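User: My collaborator and I are trying to settle a disagreement about how two of our proteins should look. Neither of us wants to argue from intuition anymore, so we agreed to look at predicted structures for both before our next call. Could you fold the first one, then the second, and keep them clearly separated?

Assistant: That sounds like a sensible way to settle it. I'll keep them separate. The first protein:
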Amino acid sequence: MARLSSLLSFSLALLIFLHGSTAQQFPNECQLDQLNALEPSHVLKAEAGRIEVWDHHAPQLRCSGVSFVRYIIESKGLYLPSFFSTAKLSFVAKGEGLMGRVVPGCAETFQDSSVFQPGGGSPFGEGQGQGQQGQGQGHQGQGQGQQGQQGQQGQQSQGQGFRDMHQKVEHIRTGDTIATHPGVAQWFYNDGNQPLVIVSVLDLASHQNQLDRNPRPFYLAGNNPQGQVWIEGREQQPQKNILNGFTPEVLAKAFKIDVRTAQQLQNQQDNRGNIIRVQGPFSVIRPPLRSQRPQEEVNGLEETICSARCTDNLDDPSNADVYKPQLGYISTLNSYDLPILRFLRLSALRGSIRQNAMVLPQWNANANAVLYVTDGEAHVQVVNDNGDRVFDGQVSQGQLLSIPQGFSVVKRATSEQFRWIEFKTNANAQINTLAGRTSVLRGLPLEVISNGYQISLEEARRVKFNTIETTLTHSSGPASYGGPRKADA
């Protein structure tokens, strides 16, 4: 009995300690009396672009348990492969390019039969390829052989046969939403003429993140001279790629290469950053570009971790969930549309509305949301659980606004067109509306509305039935609608 009592006392003390430790680590995370439209707090410049990081210590992001990053990749820029310890959901805000990801343990399903220049010693060759791009399929060859072939550059070369192979490469374009598992290495290449802009949300509070609530990119190549300045205590520490931590001799043995090549893998004297400029052609195996992706049937068999579809486009109004020609459209992406989101526990919403169109007041029932403006401006109001207006103002292109779970929000476009992307911390986020045909007030009896607000039954009837839309409507009332600050309206 004494032993059981001691065990219970120890368990209680441990529970109190852990609770106190957690409270000390994340004190009053969601004590939000005021929200702000956020701009990037850190900019990491690189040779062919930059990485802009929002301050994840900001109370509203800390409350949501997420961090936010924007990648701007110039033409012919290559964002070198990296991975995170968190689930990541990205949106292509502008441009087009290529994306590759390497899922641990999965086979190389893209194969090429091009002939490479001999690399001297290796049966597979180590030179630069002169062959044409593969078609995504080919025969795997293991032997050596001399053969002649004319490449895309019109050059004749004799070399050892080498069939390059790698994991899946995809074309990406404006409107694509990309889901990425923790630990999956990912790279991007801008093969267009305009900048490729990708915004990403990292779910720091996810059960899959076993580290702390800091965004930690692990780079496989390149170096970041500025370091992870957003993590306390690392301001003066440049961030090197993970191969840099091993001795060259160990790398030489692991890759079966010479020590000099192993040292090059460490990028010790490389100050180009994590987005480099590709010199010359960039030939990787990829399928032909299609103007529209076909709708893929999902039967459960193909949706393995290696072949799971990880992208979907949200910029096609024909696939919108809500569409009104005079007002705009709203598209959602959840685990029913993209099954991989079931494991990431994230989802997204894409909105595009015309001037003076309004998204009816609503709240997220089971998720936090992070709203990023891709185009235009809007007047936004957010109300917390205390009934206080914690945000009342304009949001414009490039700004970020966090909307905690349960906080009610209304959006009204004040420019010719307002477009945004929302990332939500639930695979199947649900919204409830305050006004409209499917709203909470529409579901209440007239007597409840009349007595609750001290209005007549006729007034209650107007409150309940006057708005027939479900999501989008024309804004009504004077130009100063939405708050006391007329300049914002």
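The second protein, kept apart from the first:
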Amino acid sequence: MDARVGALLLAQLLVQIEVGRQALQDEELLLPGPCGQRSIPTRIVGGKDTELGRWPWQASLRLWGSHHCGGSLLNRRWVLSAAHCFEKNNDPYEWTAQFGELSAMPSIWNLQAYYNRYQVEQIFLSHGYMGGSSSDIALLKLSTSVNYNKYIQPICVLANNYEFENRTDCWVTGWGDIKEDQGLPSPYILQEVEVGIINTTMCNHLFSLPSFRHDIWGDMVCAGDPQGDKDACFGDSGGPLACEKKGVWYQIGIVSWGVGCGRPNRPGVYTNVSSHYEWIRMVMVKNSIHRPDLSPPLLLLPLLWAPPFLLLA
């Protein structure tokens, strides 16, 4: 009788430990702890090669193994990107996310690159996305948790971006073309370029000029240089527009669309992340609930019949 009581108490303790462990994992999925940190102090059009670790949240989203779009790591299981990246290919099985690499085409001998490549489990597009330029945002849930290191870290997001409206020192990163008619040359190193946030009134004025008219409104953010030459380009879609404040980096925008690349008076247009903050939070909360791997009945049965020496050990 004593042995069975002891076994029951031990089983209950193990169940509580397992439930607690799963709860901590769930909490980390939603609250990744410190974000926006990087260990490296501070081609995209007009940009330059970056250094490993400067943008540790940068993801290469790969369609059947080849780079297709950019993304950003929000926590161990979630990646932020643009909805238009998945218009033609929305089967998660076809996608992986690569982290911690400078090259979009790492060597086949680079085993670390394959170790830091994660299968996509689910793809969520904003309900407001209708194939146009608004609500161009997507969340990707990974099949397994990302291992953080000094080259792989999450970026922060905010419920509002008002304090960054007039910043001139934000950065956009990606593996896209370096000119409208020129792809990124080998060895396909991640590019970075410093851009300024352009307020909506000015951006609407620029896009009202002849040759192309488009209303900039709602969930769009403009960034670049009125003179051109500093911009995202084809292949950078889904990547982050990031600004720093007091040593912490925040994602302000997602590379969405533009008129050509680096043209005067045609800044890049980004999805405003803060406009979709609640959607991001709700998708993550709704799809990050895990149950313990071992249910209490399955865990209890073998322990109730455990021999006495297991209880005395």
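Some points you might bring to the call about the second protein. The CA atoms of residues 41 and 269 lie 27 Å apart. The first strand starts at residue 48 and ends at 49.
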